Amino acid sequence: MSDTEAREGDVVRRGSAAAPPALESSVGDMDPEAFRRWGREVVDWVAEYMATRENLPVLSRSRPGDLRSQLPEDPPEEGEDPSLWLQDFQDMILPGVTHWNHPGFLAYFAISGSGPGVLGEMLTAALNVNGMLWRTSPAATELEEHVVGWLARLLGLPDSLFGVIQDTASSSSFAALAAARHQAFPQVRAHGLTGSAPGRVYASAEAHSSIEKAVIALGLGQAGLTRIPTDADFRMRPEALQRAMAEDVERGIQPVAVVATLGTTSTTSVDPLAELLPIARRHGAWVHVDAAYGGAAAALPAFRPHFKGWEEADSIVVNPHKWLFTPVDCSVLFTRRREVLRESLSLVPEYLRTREEDETTQLMDYGLPLGRRFRALKLWFVLRHFGVRGIRERIAHHIELGQRFAGLVDAAPDWIRVAAVPFSTVVFRWAPHDSDRDGPGLDDDNRRIMDAVNARGQVFLSHTRLGERTCLRMSVGNLETRWSHLETCWTQLVEEAGRLPRERAGIPGAAAVSPEAS
Ligand SMILES: Cc1ncc(COP(=O)(O)O)c(C=O)c1O
Q1: Ligand 1, atom 5: nearest CA belongs to which residue?
Q2: Domains of the chain, CATH where assigned
Q3: Among 289, 322, 324, 423, which residue has the most ligand 1 atoms within 8 Å of its CB, making it the best to mutate?
Q4: Which of 186, 297, 339, 436 is at a distance of 20 to 30 A from 51, taking alpha carbons?
Q5: Rounded to the nearest 5 degrees, what angle is found at the Cα of 382, between the Cα atoms of 109 and 110?
Q6: Bridge partners for 199 per DSSP
Q7: pLDDT of res. 435
Q8: Residues with Cβ < 8 Å from 429, sequence gap 6 or more?
Q9: Helix (H, G, I), strand (E, B) or coil at 48
Q10: Percentage of residues in the chain with pLDDT exceeding 70?
Q11: What is the 288 CA–ligand 1 centroid distance (Å)?
Q12: d(CA 169, ligand 1 centre) in Å
């Protein structure tokens, strides 16, 4: 009989290493019956939250330090009853939450922690699987391989792409650029960058900061990223890319990667990928597509022209946690160059070797972290719950809402839309028709309008800087957002603009703009 099979009495008699039964019964996990009871309470709470979240202020009204000042210095010496910590969640934590799952959340890129996604997260937490190797949970690996294939099909991407789930687009782009660097400088893996030619990554002036971070982390330095200027529609200019790459090559600089963004963060502009691809290829550079937000729109065949050429890219990132209704975090990195990605990041110590490693996928090989959550489960639930048709209808609805909101802006003489609206995000600015419409004096006013609207609690907008000007952004991505929320948003914007002081900058002898005037 082994120790683990031994009866309690045997173990105690054998002595020193064994714990007494009384202690054993007190060192385990929460009692299953208690879990069942509190689990039901929590699920009921979540259902109630989903039904009534709209009544909460979308942007937290918490002030710096509010929560910390309520928390005791020390953790409790004795375990506390769940009723206490769940009550504190309600009383102390909730006021400090900005409700990303609120239909009035229109800031940054709005997202949805959908019902099926939340259920998937619960089961993922319960299983607590670490899917680093096939062996450490075969279903986690195989479901991930399969469900990213479903996602590829939904988006019109080829089945032949390899896909792997990462936590965020920042990690996906880091992994993609690590592969690009490995392709450009294979010796770096063993010897580091010392002695290599300087390498360059090219991305538009509008590319996300995660690209620059990746370039820094990969040792290329900020000087290793060339920001290519954009056209009037905030799209990378192909002739500027061509010039920059040709000049660099002439100076002995090695092109590493070109990053095209299909749906940039500020304006959702779409880089002309089909024109950028041959330029990148000519210079031997890896092509990475950042479609973290915009990629979801490829679910709609009518929107595929925006993505022309992406199937030829070396890597693509799409975030189901942005516009595909999957709770944070879930980012999918697709690549045609699976082996290069693996060679760049895989390192397998003996204790992680398995007998079946050659016939199965070890997902730890395709990113920086070893441990990995079972994220595929929630994505699988989301795709199964809504189905392809349901997802298409919802994305199309969000785009339609964005377009209608753009129509309101366009029809208002005191507001200007500052960018095209390819997807569901509108970028605009208050610029009274009798003002210096492009003047810096209006930057502060736009911020004030936004802050005043956000303080009212029904909607939450964010801002960006385009050229030298502050602009406001309204992004639709939450499943419960309806036209009425956008009407509220617009009414409040116009009202708050009307409340600005008469002596607004840039308007000679200004008279206050009344809500009706807009
Ligand atoms: C175009 C784009 N790429 C990448 C990111 C980074 O996403 P993540 O938070 O998943 O790292 C963002 C974030 O908004 C984005 O807009």
Answers
A1: 169
A2: 29-59+98-114+387-518 (3.90.1150.170), 130-373 (3.40.640.10)
A3: 322
A4: 297
A5: 10
A6: 254
A7: 82
A8: 415, 416, 418, 442, 446, 469, 470, 471, 472
A9: helix
A10: 92
A11: 14
A12: 5
- pLDDT of residue 268 exceeding 90, the answer is yes
CA gap 331, 173 in Å, rounded? 10
Which residue, judged by its Cα, is nearest atom 16 of ligand 1?
265
Q: How many helices (H) does the chain have, and how many strands (E)?
A: 16, 11
pLDDT of the residue at 517: 34
pLDDT at 507 (0 to 100):
54
CA 121 – CA 379 distance, rounded (Å): 10
Ligand 1 pocket residue status of 166, Cβ below 6 Å: no
Handedness of CA 249, 253, 259, 265 (dihedral sign): negative
Span 324-335, pLDDT tens digits: 999 999 999 999
Whether ligand 1 lies within 6 angstroms of the CB of 475 is answered as no
For residue 126, count CB atoms less than 10 angstroms from its CB and return exposed for 0-12, middle for 13-18, buried for 19 or more: exposed
pTM equals: 0.92
Contact 331, 323 (CB under 8 A): no
423-480 pLDDT, tens digit per residue, is: 999 999 999 988 877 777 899 999 999 999 999 999 999 999 998 899 999 999 999 9
Task: Report CA(170)–ligand 1 centroid distance (Å).
Answer: 6
Q: Which residue has the tokens 């990995």?
A: 372
Judged against a pLDDT cut of 70, whether residue 7 lies above it is answered with: no
> And the tokens for 175?
């992994």
Q: Longest Cα pair distance anywhere in the chain, in angstroms?
A: 95
| Interaxial angle between packed helices 483-498 and 441-456, expressed in degrees from 0 to 180 and rounded to the nearest 10 | 130
Q: Is 265 in the pocket of ligand 1 (CB under 6 A)?
A: yes
The answer, yes or no, to whether residue 3 has pLDDT greater than 60, is no
Distance 395 CA to ligand 1 centre (A): 18
Looking from the CA of residue 331, the nearest atom of ligand 1 is 10
CA gap 307, 291 in Å, rounded: 9
CA 210 – ligand 1 centroid, Å: 7
Query: Within its chain, how far is the Cα of 485 from the centroid?
Result: 23
Band the pLDDT of 35: cuts 50, 70, 90.
very high
